[in-house]
Amino acid sequence: MYPVRKLNTTPAPCVAEFCKLVVVNTPPCNTNSNFNFIRSTANSQTFTFVPVNQSNAAQYTWTFGDGTGSHDMIATHHYAQPGTYTACLTVWFSPTCASTTCKTIQVTPQINCDSVHVYYTYQADPQVPNKIHFYANSNLPILDQTWTITRLPVAAGTNPVTLHQNNPTYLFPDTGYYRVCLRVVTLGGCIKEYCSTIHIAQVANACILQAYPNPTSSLVNVNVTLTQPEMIHAYMYNSQNVLVREKHVQGVSGLNVVNFTVGDLPAGLYTIKLIYGNHVCYAQFQKL
């Protein structure tokens, strides 16, 4: 009788190791206190101070030059009086790693919104008299524009058209009187509104079509109905009347859908001009 040896079929454990050197670069101690400052657009005497290098391991000490300071990493400070101040930032990492940087701050008086004046001018397109180009004007830089167009007299159930863009172009659908209001935000955070009534006396010999969906973010369509097969020429213009898209398609009798992809276009108001046979038609849409 012979002894039986049991073989171990369990594989030996596999152990592997991989090492890689990781280098973390830290800025030199004498540059840790570099900083930038940003003047508030709402109040010219308010500033935000931002360190170039930010670390939760550091201690930040701001002095704003008017007897006040802060230990916030990012600090906001309002100067009570206009003038010239020296703002300093000291960043402390350790007894052997600390630095200070100072910069001069020019604080101008806060703008008196009562002295801000806003108005607009407009000009009709020479070829399309109901296509109006608007231009906002102010004695201070304008930071934001919102235009509201209301047909007069105001009919129940109708909503005004709102354009949140700079110096828009608008194709008025019909003759008549319209109240156009401009609301702006200027430098210094002043909010001003100017309204005026304009008269559309003539509409170009053109038809108005509906673009859909409106507003849109990716694709816009326009339906064109033809009595016989013919070419459809489509042109898309931005609010500055610059051609941004062009398409030529062979139309068929009945309903045709002309579409454009607009996902890459900036937000704003756009006009589509369609020419087929003896027709010149327009459609407008808002790109989000």
Report on the architecture of this protein.
This protein has 288 residues and is mainly beta. The protein folds into 3 domains: 30-107, Sandwich (Immunoglobulin-like), CATH 2.60.40.10; 113-200, Immunoglobulins (Immunoglobulin-like), CATH 2.60.40; 207-287, Macroglobulin (MG2) domain (Immunoglobulin-like). The chain is 0% helix and 52% strand. The protein is built from no helices and 22 strands. The strands form 6 sheets. A 5-stranded mixed beta sheet has the order 15-22-21-18-19, with no helix packed on it. Strands 4-3-6-7 form a 4-stranded antiparallel beta sheet, with no helix packed on it. Strands 11-10-13-14 form a 4-stranded antiparallel beta sheet, with no helix packed on it. Strand 6 (83-94) and strand 7 (97-107) form a beta hairpin. The model has no long low-confidence stretch (mean pLDDT 90).
Distance N terminus to C terminus?
A: 91 Å
Series of H and E elements: EEEEEEEEEEEEEEEEEEEEEE
- By CATH, the architecture of the largest domain is named Sandwich
Structural class: mainly beta
Number of helices: 0
Helix amount: under 10%
List the helices and strands and how they pair.
Blueprint: E1 35-39, E2 46-51, E3 59-63, E4 69-70, E5 75-78, E6 83-94, E7 97-107, E8 118-124, E9 131-138, E10 142-152, E11 161-163, E12 169-171, E13 176-186, E14 191-200, E15 207-208, E16 211-212, E17 219-226, E18 231-237, E19 243-250, E20 254-261, E21 268-276, E22 279-287
Entry summary:
The chain is mostly beta strands and 288 residues long. It contains no helices and 22 strands.
